[in-house]
Specification:
With about 200 residues, this protein is an alpha/beta fold. Helix content is about 30%, strand content about 25%. The chain is built from one helix and twelve strands, in the order αββββββββββββ. The strands form four sheets. The protein has a four-stranded antiparallel β-sheet. It has a three-stranded parallel β-sheet with strand order 5-8-11, with no helix packed on it. A three-stranded parallel β-sheet has the order 6-9-12, with no helix packed on it. A hairpin with a 2-residue loop joins β3 and β4.
């Protein structure tokens, strides 16, 4: 008795299995590609959003420094923002009745904007609360307020000190308060880059 195998049927079945396997692999690859693309788009969107917030916060920081320096906190505008790296920002500032400032900064990156709002207050020490205030009204760029001396003759200041130029403490001189200056501070630690205009005194 002779048994014959239908080779055409076997070849057809093998071809069908191969085709199903190829289609399945292609579908799986397509799904993986779509997932990778979606993941990248999500990452890019989050990264761009973070950049906008960083730019807006940089604007807030810049505006606050300008408030401390006694200048306008308004920086750029929507039509002409300040360039910063690959983005830009601008800051709107409103002075409130209590002398605080409402700062609204807008950061732009990738064609979109993000905004950050903050209330800032200049915590500068009032002029008449200083133990020693040297405003440098002549705007001498070389002006330096100096403390010095040795032993019992050394300068000792109890309270806050401000210099409209630089500030230098040498010898055995000392100060127990905050040191603030527009220029450099030598011989002690304090805050530099501060501009604090003196009071306007009217004679009656």
């Amino acid at each position: 008795m002779t048994i014959r195998t239908n080779q055409r049927t076997e070849r057809g079945s093998a071809l069908l299995c191969t085709l199903v396997l190829v289609v399945s692999c292609a579908a799986l690859a397509a799904a993986m590609i779509r997932k990778n693309i979606a993941t990248k788009l999500e990452y890019d969107a989050r990264w761009a959003s973070a950049q906008r917030l960083y730019l807006a916060r940089a604007g807030i920081s810049n505006a606050f420094l300008r408030i401390r320096a006694g200048t306008s906190a308004v920086l750029g505008n929507a039509g002409n923002p300040l360039a910063c790296g690959d983005g830009a920002y601008y800051v709107q500032a409103v002075k409130n009745a209590d002398d605080s400032y409402t700062l609204t900064a807008h950061g732009k990156f990738g064609g979109s904007w993000a905004s950050v709002r903050s209330v800032a207050r200049d915590v500068a020490v009032p002029v008449f609360d200083h133990a020693l205030y040297a405003g440098n009204s002549s705007a001498d760029p070389n002006y330096t307020l100096e403390f010095g001396g040795s032993g019992t003759q050394a300068d000792k200041v109890s309270g806050d000190v401000y210099s409209g130029g630089s500030l230098k403490i040498k010898g055995n001189a000392s100060s127990s308060g905050k040191l603030r200056a527009k220029g450099l501070i030598e011989g002690g630690s304090g805050t530099t880059g501060i501009v604090q205009p003196g009071p306007t005194l009217a004679v009656q």
